[in-house]
Each structure stands twice: as C-alpha cells, then as structure tokens.
Design goal:
Blueprint (H helix, E strand, L loop, with lengths): L7 H23 L5 E3 L2 E3 L5 H4 L1 H14 L3 H25 L3 H19 L9 H4 L11
Antiparallel strand pairs: 1-2
Helix pairs in contact: 1-3, 3-4, 4-5
Length: 141
C-alpha cells in the first residue's frame, strides 16, 4: 500500500498566512497613514490605501490555497516571495541597510526554498491517491 502525504506542514503555514493577512488588515485599518515601503518608494496618503491592501489580499489567498493544497497557491507563493525579495532589495538600496528588512529577506529565501522542495503536494494528481481512498481487491475481481 502506498502512503500518501497530507501536507500538514503546508497546511500549518496556510493557517499562519491567514493570521498574517488578518493582522495586515488590522494594521492597515488602524494606521492608514503608515508609509508602506515598496520597491524603494515610500507609499503614503489615502490614494495609496488600495496599494497597501495587496499584502493582506495575497497573504489571505496564499493561506487559503495552502490549507486546501491548491496548485495555484504554490505558484502564487513563489512569485510573491520573488516580489518581496526584489522589493526589499530595492528598499535596502534606497533607504539603507536595516536588520529587520535583512531578516525578512533571509526568511523569505528559506520559505521559498522550502515551498519549492514541497512542490509535489500541490500537483493535480489522481484524487483517490491524493485523498487516500482505499479500494479493496475484491472490488476489482
């Protein structure tokens, strides 16, 4: 009998992303004048409120996709990690070295490497194999 993986680690990450997305929404709502730094530019003012909402929206989408192991969640998470790394690199160049931004970059690289390694969990494979439905030999006679 072949053992299937349930991806509990990825589902836990999905729950964390849902929490992060919710916290992002609360922070943006409580501090609307916060200057969000994106690609070396400090985004401020009420007209950029929607730009700031991309972060919680993507975190919530990744969280949902990780919880249900949706194939699109893998690509979204890897692409968003790349987006974050490029943005933070430009922020470092524009605003100078900052240890928190450097730690973010290091953890994002580790996260991306881990998710890339777990790619097989997000593939569209046979539903019976994915959900571990046992079929007895008697039904095939």
């Amino acid at each position: 009998m072949r053992r299937t993986r349930i991806g509990l680690d990825i589902k836990i990450l999905g729950g964390l992303f849902l929490i992060f997305g919710t916290v992002d929404l609360v922070v943006i709502a409580l501090f609307p004048s916060y200057a969000f730094k994106l690609f070396g530019v400090a985004v401020t003012g009420p007209s950029f409120y929607l730009v700031k909402l991309h972060s919680p929206a993507v975190h919530l989408l990744i969280g949902y996709g990780f919880l249900w192991l949706r194939p699109w969640a893998w690509g979204l998470s890897v692409a968003y990690a790349g987006f974050g790394l490029v943005s933070e690199t430009m922020n470092q160049l524009a605003f100078g070295f900052h240890p928190v931004r450097s730690a973010f970059m290091a953890t994002t690289m580790l996260f991306a490497a881990y998710v890339i390694r777990r790619r097989a969990l997000f593939t569209d494979e046979d539903l019976a194999a994915k959900h571990h439905i046992l079929v007895s030999e008697e039904t095939h006679r």
